[in-house]
Amino acid sequence: MTQTRIAILGAAGRMGRALLEAVPHHGNLRLGAAFDRADAPGIGQPIADGVKLSSDPRAAADDYDVLIDFTRPEGTLAALETCLASGKGMVIGTTGFSAEQRALIEAASRRIPICLSGNFSIGVNLCLALVEHAARVLGETVDIEIVEAHHRHKVDAPSGTALMLGEAAARGVGRSLREHAVYAREGHTGARTRTDIGFATIRGGDVVGDHTVMFLGDGERVEIAHKASNRANFSNGALRAAHWLQDKAPGLYSMKDVLA
Ligand SMILES: NC(=O)C1=CN([C@@H]2O[C@H](COP(=O)(O)OP(=O)(O)OC[C@H]3O[C@@H](n4cnc5c(N)ncnc54)[C@H](OP(=O)(O)O)[C@@H]3O)[C@@H](O)[C@H]2O)C=CC1
Ligand SMILES: O=C(O)C1=N[C@H](C(=O)O)C[C@H](O)C1
């Protein structure tokens, strides 16, 4: 069996550690390199069999076929340059990109294969399809609201998953999320507009990731919810995506492509 050699960027973080734990359970993968910031604890020390944690993806480009990134947008964009230079594919799990940063990723995907997803769990990707279908069926009869909760350390809001769920709902009802999203309410907001797609964010404790899409009608309400209780569901999905991506042509792929 051909093994895909992966590198993990953000290896000292929560997702990085979950990925390191999961790699040995994927026989079609081998860890080739692991990176984090130059001042991360453990730099220069072994992090897995035969692999030391280092800080320069460019210097070790011969050691991996696909780079998996779970960092911050700045880390992703720096890694994108490295992968463009070496022609390696990228799995991007980082969230919180601006429209400009997202455009850079899209441009890069014309030259290298990139799998980008705000959530690599199979359950959430199933929910995306369910939400789009529910929105199409319920249409203009309901108000759509998305509630998400995450641990106290999360730095971006709404979550990447909430935004993907919002896009799925918007597609279902034939609206543009950019035009109809309402990300905050405070003070005298006036009554809700039927076409709004509202977002609410909770941060605290060790919540791994909860998302609920509510379709609120008159006399009934439909809710589609996903609750992650560990990070293995994200790491296993990202590792599956890395192996899938390894022989793909340049393009911007999603977890839907991986699971097809
Ligand atoms: N798509 C998905 O399925 C999932 C996505 N995520 C997303 O993944 C990202 C990481 O989450 P999480 O692991 O919890 O975060 P952590 O903060 O625990 O880990 C991120 C790691 O990356 C490091 N890092 C940050 N910036 C850089 C950089 N420029 N170069 C190198 N290393 C860098 C951090 O170092 P330092 O601490 O010093 O900043 C840290 O060690 C977030 O955007 C999160 O939303 C999370 C879970 C699932
Ligand atoms: O930061 C996290 O932890 C998570 N981030 C992703 C997101 O922004 O949706 C995915 C997951 O919910 C965990």
What do these coordinates show?
By secondary structure, the chain is of the alpha/beta class. It folds into two domains: 4-120 and 231-259, NAD(P)-binding Rossmann-like Domain (Rossmann fold, 3-Layer(aba) Sandwich); 122-228, Dihydrodipicolinate Reductase, domain 2 (2-Layer Sandwich). Helices cover 33% and strands 26% of the residues. It has helices spanning 14-22, 73-86, 99-108, 122-138, 160-173, 177-180, 232-245, 255-259; strands spanning 4-9, 29-35, 46-48, 51-54, 66-69, 89-92, 113-116, 143-150, 181-182, 197-203, 209-216, 221-228, 251-253. The strands form two sheets. An eight-stranded mixed sheet has the order 3-4-2-1-5-6-7-13, with helices on both faces. Strands 9-10-8-11-12 form a five-stranded mixed sheet. α1 packs across α7 (232-245) and α2 (73-86) runs parallel beside α3 (99-108). The longest helix is centred in the middle third of the chain and has 17 residues, at 122-138. The chain starts with a strand and ends with a helix. The mean pLDDT is 97. The site of NADPH dihydro-nicotinamide-adenine-dinucleotide phosphate (NDP) has 26 residues, from α1 and α2. This is 4-hydroxy-tetrahydrodipicolinate reductase. NADP(+) binds at residue 37. It catalyses: (S)-2,3,4,5-tetrahydrodipicolinate + NADP(+) + H2O = (2S,4S)-4-hydroxy-2,3,4,5-tetrahydrodipicolinate + NADPH + H(+); (S)-2,3,4,5-tetrahydrodipicolinate + NAD(+) + H2O = (2S,4S)-4-hydroxy-2,3,4,5-tetrahydrodipicolinate + NADH + H(+).
